[in-house]
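Reopening this one. Same input as before:
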Amino acid sequence: MAKNDLILRALRREPVERTPVWLMRQAGRYLPEYRQTRAVAGSFMDLCRNDELACEVTMQPLARYELDAAILFSDILTIPDAMGLGLQFVEGEGPCFDRPVDTPAAIDALGVPDPEDELGYVMNAVRTISSTLDGRVPLIGFAGSPWTLAVYMVEGRATREFRKVKLLMNAEPEATARLLDTLARSVAVYLEAQIRAGAEIAMIFDTWGGVLGHRDYEKFSLKWMQQIVSHLKKSSPDVPVILFTKGGGQWLSEMADTGCDGLGIDWTTSLRDARVATKDRVALQGNLDPAVLHAPADRIDAEVKRVIEEFGEGPGHIFNLGHGIQTLTDPERVGLMVDAVRKYSART
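Same output, byte for byte:
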């Protein structure tokens, strides 16, 4: 049991003495200590595969800031990498796959990776981090959503057009469904294994759900996240699950229907509106615009206060950014934000 269980209570929508805070990408390139560890590791994936260094990086932001959760240092593309697609991270381009999955035959050749075998290095990192935390704060495990993983796997690299994956889903909807089913089963057992290894919260990042039309979102993204949530609620009923669809503010009610415990809200949606849409059935996480952290100190202070006031009275708020910390963010600005959250959310 975590000594600081604020985020767990917030996810259960129980009263808390102040709003808990953690940050997407809180361990990453904006921290000079991270850059030093990355240099020691040699490459990003070498860093992910070294459980001691992954633990070191996970703990770095907790040494700087009074955060209420740690998040596993890893990547959403570990599952397709374990499927043998030849993942590389190219400077200036981001992730690329040597063998994209863009035909029905390639889809049908995929299998579900064993989380303790092909992905055993992730479980080793979870165990090492959990032991090092020793209950200090809860550990968040995570995975990419099936749709988001499919985007990278079909396109073969980061994209702004989504041409290949949208062509596949329109020309080969049954094959696309088989791909998403394989990925949903993979994510479900992967998160279940992270929980067994010590993760106390599971989060699903649906980075590209917002590029879909309304009906397509339900068919190609939400349906498969629902499958994962249902699996986890059977295998680990006491572990809260958070869903985050970037650009998904119009689907919050449907997302809450999955049975998840919390929803990440990006900065394009008002927390007040999100509470109305979800009818306070789930906790809400968010939603400061990451760009605000480049602003002067008084602006950061004012925006933190605004976000807290916008959520309003009642339980169920976790302060976070509306997406990940940007690379060029000044670490001192992050400290100002964390301090402001504690200042403005304290309850008597």
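So the earlier flakiness isn't reproducible anymore. For the record, The chain is about 50% helix and 10% strand.
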